[in-house]
Amino acid sequence: MDKYRLVKYEKGKIVLEDAKNSEDYFYIISRGKVIAYNNFYDKTYSYRKGDIVGLISSITKEPYYSTIETIEDTELWEIKTEYIDKINNKHLINKISDYLYLILEIWLSKYYAAVIKNKTDLYNKEDPLTMAQIYKDAGFTEASHKICSDYIKLFSKDYNTEHVMNFMKDLKRVKQPVHINKNSYKMYKGHCLYSELEADEYVYYIRSGRVGIYNIMDSKYSLRTIFPKEYIIDAHKPTLEYTPLFTTAIVLEDSIIDVMTKEELIKILYDDSNMRLKIIKMISIRVISTILKLKSIKKTNLEERLIVLIYSILKIETLFYEKDYIKLYYKIEDIKNMIHDDADINNIENAIKNIDYIEFDSFNKIIITDIKEYLKKYKSYTE
């Protein structure tokens, strides 16, 4: 088969089918219109000329998460996924990048809308000093300091910020980053890369270590995901107007992190084909993981909710490295917040203990003893 070819579908034909194994190609619509729908989210979405479909599942080799059906006679460019690292058309590279980030935001917004109890938090943040106090109480004093600093920078011309400066005086600081070379820094446990009060203009590439992504909703902090090494965190301002899309990033263990501008990242996408493929896979698996989280809270059985949530975490953890087992950094309270469940912590812990290939260490940390067998056994729960 050539790198790409034009294919035609009559109105009412299925192009891609939900839960089916993905193929090694994706589509760009040349003419016509399609709709996307699935069995876990009520709304349908339409795509038209110039839109991309099927890329996320194809690049990650995950099953399709939506059915794509034509609602008009439609023509699509069918493009081999392996061709992505050979693309030299900057317009197409930008199009793929913009598409992936938008799709990620859309699914994150769906997940947050489902998980937040106080729906006003979708559009409004807590008072900044309240947010700073929440992070301080959780032991994240550097995040508390960062929120205060951002508040002063944003509002000192319009509001009296003396009370915020007084609050900051009592915050215990962690060791500040040490420059290694070029754009690489040694960052220490507890350091805050950016806060949810203000979007950041930088992009962070984790060469070693781990970074946790948090935000405050329902008047408490919640862990949203943990990124291991090789992941890139883009802290740009979200396109969609949902406040939970603004997050706080905290270094969870001593790490080596490259700090670059958005323009430097785009140059990498243009010039480094291997890194381009890596970044596209990374954003795509984040979409898949977010969809799995959304599926988990749609489950009615607590154990099934936990199975699918842990499945989503493993997809992030195993993208770049095959592992036999893993100790998760997530606490039971984190798991509870992520599945939006009112169950008692002890009930959640007992339910996790009933899941195969999971055990707890002496510090009550979750260990997946056989990742491959876990993913194989519980794959059907994710459909």
Summarize the structure.
This protein has eleven helices and 20 strands.
Mean residue pLDDT: 92
Strand content: 15-25%
Oligomeric state? single chain
Strand line-up across the major sheet: 9-10-17-12-15
Distance between the termini: 30 Å
The count of strands amounts to 20
Specify the helix fraction band.
25-40%
Structure class: alpha+beta
What does this structure look like?
- This protein is of the alpha+beta class and 383 residues long.
- 37% of the residues lie in helices and 24% in strands.
- It has helices at residues 55-60, 90-115, 128-137, 141-155, 162-169, 262-271, 273-298, 302-317, 332-339, 345-353, 371-377; strands at residues 4-9, 14-16, 25-31, 33-37, 45-48, 52-53, 67-70, 74-80, 178-181, 184-187, 192-194, 202-208, 211-217, 220-227, 232-234, 248-251, 255-261, 326-327, 358-360, 366-368.
- It has a five-stranded antiparallel beta sheet with strand order 9-10-17-12-15. A four-stranded antiparallel beta sheet has the order 1-8-3-6.
- α4 (141-155) packs antiparallel against α5 and α6 (262-271) crosses α7.
- The longest helix is centred in the N-terminal third of the chain and has 26 residues, at 90-115.
- The protein starts with a strand and ends in a 6-residue tail after the last helix.
What topology does this entry show?
Layout: E1 4-9, E2 14-16, E3 25-31, E4 33-37, E5 45-48, E6 52-53, H1 55-60, E7 67-70, E8 74-80, H2 90-115, H3 128-137, H4 141-155, H5 162-169, E9 178-181, E10 184-187, E11 192-194, E12 202-208, E13 211-217, E14 220-227, E15 232-234, E16 248-251, E17 255-261, H6 262-271, H7 273-298, H8 302-317, E18 326-327, H9 332-339, H10 345-353, E19 358-360, E20 366-368, H11 371-377
Antiparallel strand pairs: 1-8, 2-7, 3-6, 3-8, 4-5, 4-7, 9-10, 10-17, 11-16, 12-15, 12-17, 13-14, 13-16, 18-20, 19-20
